[in-house]
Amino acid sequence: MLLPTVTNLALFTITISMALCLWRLIVGPSFPDRVAASDTISTNIVALLIVLSIKFTTQDYFDAVLVIAILGFLSSVALAKFLIGGSVFDRD
Amino acid sequence: MTGISLSELLTSFFILFGLFFVLTGSIGLIRFPDVYTRLHAPTKSATLGVFGILIASIIHQASHGFLGIKEILTTVFLFLTAPVGAHMIARAAYLTGVQPAQQSTTCEFFYILRQKEEDKQDADQNL
Hints:
The structure holds two protein chains of two kinds. Chain A has three helices and no strands. By secondary structure, chain A is mostly helical. Chain A has one domain. In chain B, α1 runs antiparallel to α3. The N and C termini of chain B lie far apart (80 Å). At the A-B interface, α1, α2 and α3 of A face α1, α3 and α4 of B.
C-alpha cells in the first residue's frame, strides 16, 4: 500500500506545482518570465509522466517523455532567439 | 509492516525526494522578485527533482526486470539542456532590457540604464 499512496501524492503535488507555474505564465510581468514558466511546465510534465509510468509499471510513457523534453528545450530556445533578434533563424 | 519490499521503500523515498524539489522550484518561480532570480529556482531545483523521480523509476523498473535505458537517456538529456535553456532565457531578458529588482545593486549595465532614465526624467522635469 505504500507505493500507490506515494504515487497518488506525487500526482497531486506535481499538479499543484503546474498550477503555480500557470499562475506565473498568466501574470508574469515580462515575456522571459512566461518563457521560463512554460519551460518549467514542460519539466513538470516530464515528472508527471514518469510518476505515471511508475504507477502503472509500464515502459510505454518514455517515448512521450523524451519527445516532451526535447520539445520543451527547443521551444524555450526558439522563443529566446525570437526575443533577441525578432527572427528564429539567422539569414546571414 | 508486512508486504513492503526494499525496492518499494527505495522507490517511495526517491519519489518523495524529487517531489520536494519540484514543488520548491515552482514556489521559487512564484516568490522571487525578478526574472534573473526566478530562473534559478526551476532550472536547478526542478531538474534535480526530475532526477530523483527518474532514479525512483530506474529502481522500480529494475525490480520488475526491465533495464531503464530510456530513463538514463532522459536524465542525461535534461541535465545537458536545462542550463542551456536557462542561459538563453536570461540572455534574452538581459539583451531586451528587462530591469532587475530594486534591491540588486551590482549589475553595472543596468546601473547605466537606470542612470540614463533618471537623467531623462530630470530633463523632462526641467522642460
